[in-house]
């Protein structure tokens, strides 16, 4: 069964707008949503970056049935895993089975802000696994002590716990991270329609656990207008290699995206009012093995996108939404 979800972009919208959009997503028929957890936007033109845990608290009371997760939180530097254990337990208590915790190894852009060294990926993976272990231990509701390689916990206990603990979904863009997700995670999150990522996840123990994929699009009344919006607001989708994780500041991203051409973005992001390219890209991810597809609509035309989804996508796909 394939489910369709909505990507809530904290980099582009104010806290109140994010909550309103999650309500609209629920009304439009999306069964789940992931909300980004950033300290900075990628570029200044995006204009926002609220504290996701405050937004989730408001969303918990404003929505009724849509499942919501972070997409994704880095538990290794900016926020200590004990605090994230408390934050997730609180949100899960409010959402009563509707919250899941999406985690990843982060980006330098967000995680350097307290002066900690941005370490190589191999070390971040080790920190990541230890942090997840700490969070799961804290969720037991017992006095926790942990003296690890990267984190220390002394006489800490959570008193507010949900009846149902949230699943932890691990983000992966490579085979090694996908294998870790299969081994210790409750699901996989990725952004590329690569079957090898799904296969690595399944082989390592993921089996038929949920496999999430984000798809960036821009609906508007014309293809040209939509592409202009992507070029202005989301040119970072045209960056290649490790730049998204390694660049340190918004200024650096603006310098890098200045070299991205509009025609490059046209190849990366589905734009415009024609439903056919949207369905084509959705099926590409389905063919790669993903079963939870969540759509990131770039720019301010969110209401138009929701109407487009209801009219042209939701009931015209040959998959259960």
Describe this structure in words.
This protein is α/β, with parallel strands linked by helices and 321 residues long. It has a single domain (3-313), classed as TIM Barrel. The protein is built from 13 helices and eleven strands. It has helices spanning 15-28, 52-62, 81-95, 108-111, 121-138, 175-184, 195-206, 223-233, 243-246, 250-257, 262-268, 275-288, 302-313, and strands spanning 3-8, 32-35, 67-70, 99-103, 144-147, 152-156, 168-171, 187-190, 211-218, 270-271, 292-297. The strands form two sheets. An eight-stranded parallel barrel has the order 1-2-3-4-7-8-9-11, surrounded by six helices. The chain has a two-stranded antiparallel ribbon with strand order 5-6. Helix 6 (175-184) packs parallel to helix 7. The chain starts with a strand and ends in an 8-residue tail after the last helix.
Low-confidence stretches: none
Number of helices: 13
Largest sheet strand order:
1-2-3-4-7-8-9-11
Helix coverage percent: 40-55%
- What CATH architecture do you see? Alpha-Beta Barrel
**Highest-level CATH class:** Alpha Beta
What do the pLDDT scores average to? Answer: 97
How much strand?
15-25%
What's the N-to-C terminus distance? 8 Å
**Backbone structural class:** alpha/beta
CATH superfamily: Luciferase-like domain
| Cα Rg | 19 Å
**How would you spell out the order of helices and strands?**
EHEHEHEHHEEEHEHEHHHHEHEH
- What is the molecular shape? globular
**Number of domains as seen in the coordinates:** 1
Describe the main β-sheet briefly: 8 strands, parallel, barrel
Oligomer: single chain
| Number of beta strands | 11
């Amino acid at each position: 069964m394939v489910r369709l979800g909505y990507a809530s972009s904290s980099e582009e919208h104010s806290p109140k707008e994010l909550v309103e959009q999650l309500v609209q997503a629920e009304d439009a028929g999306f069964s789940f949503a992931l909300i980004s957890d950033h300290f900075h936007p990628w570029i200044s033109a995006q204009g926002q970056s609220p504290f996701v845990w405050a937004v989730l608290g408001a969303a918990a009371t404003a929505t009724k049935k849509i499942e919501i997760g972070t997409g994704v939180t880095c538990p290794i530097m900016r926020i200590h895993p004990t605090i994230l254990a408390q934050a997730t337990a609180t949100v899960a208590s409010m959402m009563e089975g509707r919250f899941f915790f999406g985690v990843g190894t982060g980006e330098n852009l967000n995680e350097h802000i307290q002066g900690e060294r941005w370490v190589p990926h191999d070390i971040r993976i080790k920190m990541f696994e230890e942090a997840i272990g700490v969070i799961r231990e804290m969720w037991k509701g017992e006095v926790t002590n942990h003296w690890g390689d990267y984190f220390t916990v002394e006489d800490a206990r959570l008193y507010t716990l949900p009846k149902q603990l949230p699943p932890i979904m691990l983000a992966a863009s490579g085979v090694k991270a996908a294998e870790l997700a299969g081994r210790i995670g409750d699901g996989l999150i990725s952004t590329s329609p690569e079957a090898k990522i799904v296969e690595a996840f399944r082989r390592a123990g993921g089996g038929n656990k949920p496999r999430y994929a984000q798809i960036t699009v821009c609906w508007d009344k014309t293809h040209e207008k939509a592409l202009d919006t992507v070029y202005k607001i989301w040119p970072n989708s045209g960056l290649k290699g490790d730049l998204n994780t390694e660049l340190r500041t918004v200024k650096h991203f603006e310098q890098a995206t200045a070299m991205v051409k509009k025609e490059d973005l046209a190849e990366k992001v589905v734009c415009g009012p024609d439903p056919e390219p949207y369905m084509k890209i959705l099926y590409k991810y389905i063919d790669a093995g993903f079963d939870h597809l969540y759509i990131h609509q770039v720019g301010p035309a969110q209401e138009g996108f929701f109407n487009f989804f209801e009219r042209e996508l939701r009931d015209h796909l040959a998959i259960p939404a």
